[in-house]
Design goal:
The complex is a heterodimer of chains A (206) and B (312).
Chain A lengths: L1 H9 L5 H11 L3 H23 L2 H18 L9 H21 L20 H6 L7 H4 L4 H10 L4 H12 L4 H7 L4 H19 L3
Chain B lengths: L2 H12 L5 H13 L1 H20 L7 H23 L4 H6 L3 H22 L13 H6 L7 E9 L8 E7 L11 H11 L5 H11 L6 H13 L3 H11 L6 H13 L3 H11 L6 H11 L5 H17 L1
Antiparallel strand pairs in B: 1-2
Helix pairs in contact in B: 1-2, 1-3, 2-3, 8-9, 9-11, 10-11, 10-12, 12-13, 13-15, 14-15
The chains are: A mainly alpha (206), B mainly alpha (312).
Chain lengths: 206, 312
């Protein structure tokens, strides 16, 4: 986690080395692109895994993020840091996946109808599956606190959860989170405050 | 600055998101305000407890390897597809390769769109002898709209193209509220983040069945999470008759604590008032509203405690 925080501190600006890599990748150098991927892929995978809650979808988000970056790298104009840019792609892809999952209109039923359609997932289960904490692998840790946080995170709106994830777990500064969301630092502060209030209300004294 | 506003500062200070002057202002306030000092300590303990959970928060170690391998495969496929464009003979003739690729993709997309709009699609499923194109079109019913079309694979022989996309069909449906399909459509309308009007109508209709657990849960979710005030108020109206339910009361308490709208918080206090014969409930409401930035809300909260005292 300290590494994440260190990275987040440095993330506001690209080093000369990174700028060179970006320019090389923009001119079609695949090795340079892969080098860029390796600089950031742990953070992106961590975000995807936590937001989506299972390895399959995390892998999809990971690939979609970097493939989008690969295809649109020529449009990157160094107006923000590469770190912010790639995070913006990753958060959009993650949110798209969450929205798709929650609006699978043909498959949604709030309570599962086990008699007539045993294969159809219940909406409440679909929604419950949207956090990392509902992952069976996570449950193996058997932490009471983790399970209570799992419940509490369900009470957050999509954006409250995103801001909380990015600030609390990824260690990004709110200014950068605002940029990633295409919004302002002030808005990110409001989301963080509301998220924390809701979590406290849900969890009381953990 | 009110104590309510300092609550926000407290959270931001624990995440080290205050500038020097804000931090100094908060520290000065904390020295003179017992309530906020206690709140700071509670928030601090809470954040520390949450921080402990970070330690169990890593993805499985093999997943990164798997992801990198998968990405490399995808990049290989993209490069293979592109490689023939890069042959010297082609690069002499077609110098702006990317423009050509883009133009090809756009042309394919347009051709696909025109094809769909001009052709009648059989309602019968594809037979064994149908061409792949006919099989694909059979998945696109007449009068439907195709969106988000993406080409995911142009095939190694460049003779086939694989698409993904969404098919959206016009829908008109009449059903009873207790029908599963009706419920599914209403739940879907509730999740339409772009259309608060639809969400409000869905809440209004669902509220007629708020005694049912699944509907109640959906209304609670709308009350606590919907960004639109009117949707939250409709959800509140639907839940109000069931305020004797533990889940509903818990949701009301949470709305009282976090809803940004004064009107909602006042309405919640009114709905909870009949349950304040229990001193604990009155005290909880008073504690939650004590630092509310709206004077009327604070007074209402205190009033409940006093009325309980008067009755005794």
């Amino acid at each position: 986690m300290e590494a994440v925080l260190r990275r987040a501190e440095q993330a506001g600006y690209d080093s000369d080395e990174e700028k060179l890599l970006i320019e090389q990748a923009q001119s079609g150098n695949r090795e340079a692109f892969e080098e860029l991927v390796r600089k950031h892929d742990r953070d992106i995978l961590r975000l995807a895994f936590h937001m989506l809650g299972n390895r399959e979808e995390a892998q999809e988000v990971f690939q979609e993020t970097f493939l989008k970056a690969f295809r649109s790298l020529n449009r990157f104009r160094f107006e923000s840091s590469f770190y912010t840019w790639i995070y913006r792609i990753a958060t959009n892809v993650s949110l798209d996946h969450l929205r798709k999952r929650q609006t699978l209109k043909e498959e949604i039923s709030y309570e599962s109808d086990t008699e007539t359609n045993p294969d159809r997932p219940a909406l409440k289960d679909t929604l419950a599956a949207t956090t990392y904490y509902s992952n069976p692998e996570r449950r193996l840790y058997g932490r009471e606190v983790g399970e209570r946080i799992q419940e509490a995170l369900k009470s957050l709106s999509e954006k409250e959860r995103l801001v909380f994830e990015l600030r609390h777990y990824q260690g990004l500064r709110l200014r950068m989170i605002g940029e990633i969301m295409g919004s302002t630092e002030e808005t990110a502060k409001n989301y963080l405050f509301r998220a924390t209030q809701k979590l406290r209300a849900q969890l009381g004294k953990v | 600055m009110s104590c309510q506003e300092y609550q926000r500062q407290i959270v931001l200070s624990l995440y080290e998101e205050l500038d020097d002057s804000e931090r100094a202002g908060l520290e000065t306030h904390l020295l003179g305000c017992t309530g906020c000092r206690q709140s700071y300590e509670e928030h601090n303990a809470f954040c520390n407890a949450l921080a402990e959970d970070k330690t169990a928060w890593e993805f499985p170690s093999d997943l990164l390897v798997e992801c990198r391998r998968g990405l490399a495969d995808q990049l290989d496929r993209i490069e293979t597809k592109r490689s023939w464009w890069r042959m010297p003979a082609f690069s002499v003739v077609f110098t702006p390769m990317r423009m050509l690729e883009s133009a090809t993709l756009i042309a394919l997309g347009l051709a696909f769109g025109v094809y769909i709009s001009n052709h009648q699609v059989s309602a019968v499923g594809p037979s064994a002898g149908d061409s792949p194109a006919a099989m694909a079109l059979s998945a696109v019913p007449q009068n439907s709209r195709v969106s988000n079309v993406r080409i995911v694979n142009t095939g190694s022989d460049t003779a086939t193209v694989e698409f993904t996309g969404d098919v959206v069909q016009p829908l008109r449906f009449t059903g009873k509220l207790e029908d599963d399909t009706t419920r599914r459509l209403l739940f879907s309308a509730l999740q339409d983040s772009m259309n608060p009007g639809s969400r409000m109508q869905a809440v209004e209709v669902l509220a007629r069945k708020s005694s049912e657990p699944s509907v109640k849960e959906v209304l609670i979710h709308a009350l606590l999470n919907d960004e639109n005030l009117n949707v939250r108020l409709k959800a509140f109206d639907g839940l109000k008759p069931f305020a004797d339910d533990d889940d509903v009361r818990a949701a009301f308490m949470q709305a009282l604590m976090s809803d940004p709208n004064d009107g909602v918080r006042v309405a919640v206090i009114d709905a909870l008032a009949p349950f304040t014969k229990s001193e604990a409930m009155a005290n909880s409401i008073e504690a939650v509203t004590r630092n509310d930035d709206n004077t009327y809300v604070r007074l209402k909260g205190q009033g409940l405690v006093h009325s309980v005292g008067d009755q005794r």
